[in-house]
Amino acid sequence: MATGDFMKIITIASGKGGVGKSMLASSLAMVLAESRKVITVDCDVDAPNLGLSLGLKDSDYDTWKEITTNEKAELIESRCNGCKKCVDVCNFNAIEWDDERDMPVFDRMFCEGCGACELVCPRDAIVLKKAMNAKIGTGKTRYGFGIVSGQLKMGESGSGKIVFVTKKTAEDIGRKEGAEIMLIDAAAGIGCPVIASITGSDYVVAVTEPTPSAFSDLERVLRVVEHFGIPYGLVINKHDINNAFTKRVEHFAKGAGIPIIGKIPYDKEFVKANVGMKPIVSYDRGKKKMFQKIASEVLAHSD
Fold it and tell me: What domains lie within the chain, and their CATH numbers?
């Protein structure tokens, strides 16, 4: 397994946001926890909501710890000779020139901490300082399993690095608690946080819905998963809202040899469960069997 033989890592991913990724992750966690020791991880650090799906507000977590995975450039004004080299080299438009003071002004919102300005400064007037750009929360859900959530601070960057630290935190906790499964709720898309979430996984559950935009984004995220050689299966959410397009998705999956491990119908009960901050299998126990079947498929394909 990716982290040794103590824990299987399963990641829930989607190319498009809003297709039911967190809904699936919360309910899968519940049914898997009936027979396995599970720890859940919210790696959508820009917009974490797995905790909300499991009934946790920020105040319900046991601990929150501020972390730094990034640096920001700062100016030592007494050393600046006004050469403007830092302004010329910045590719992120994070440095403007103050004509009145005849020195650069650094915008922390745009600074990516790349260090280019520090390298070109002839007077060592620029230094990189650590920025507390995120926090990680750890706690227990009311359903008995643990959760680790990463949250990027507003206006900060470095989400991919935060995902890495969030996963490492969950891995350490899971090892201590003897967890058998780490279930990761990844961000939508194909960017750095998604790549960081998927990397090292034993299995990926890709979630989509039968719409052109969701299908297009699905193909993109699957290319990322395939790049890392990770086995995966597909869940089609709201499969009955567009039967013709669902058949198109199924045809694509069959042609590519992708197992469809679950199909979830549209139901307003899902919305009610989300508003009530409950997994659908807790809100409507009649749907439990559907998610148990998906969980069985996940375990069968990931072993």
Answer: 8-68+155-302 (3.40.50.300), 70-131 (3.30.70.20)
- Nearest residue to 152 via CA among 269, 67, 250, 80: 67
Residue 75 is given by DSSP the state E
Global model pTM greater than 0.85: yes
For the chain, list the strands marked E by DSSP: 8-14, 38-42, 63-67, 70-75, 95-98, 103-106, 126-131, 134-140, 146-152, 181-188, 203-208, 232-237, 260-264
Q: Please give the Cα distance from 11 to 144 (Å, whole number).
A: 20
pLDDT digits (tens, 9 = 90+) for 53-70: 999 999 999 999 999 998
pLDDT tens, position by position, 77-109: 999 999 999 999 999 999 999 999 999 999 988
Encoded tokens for 51: 């905790």
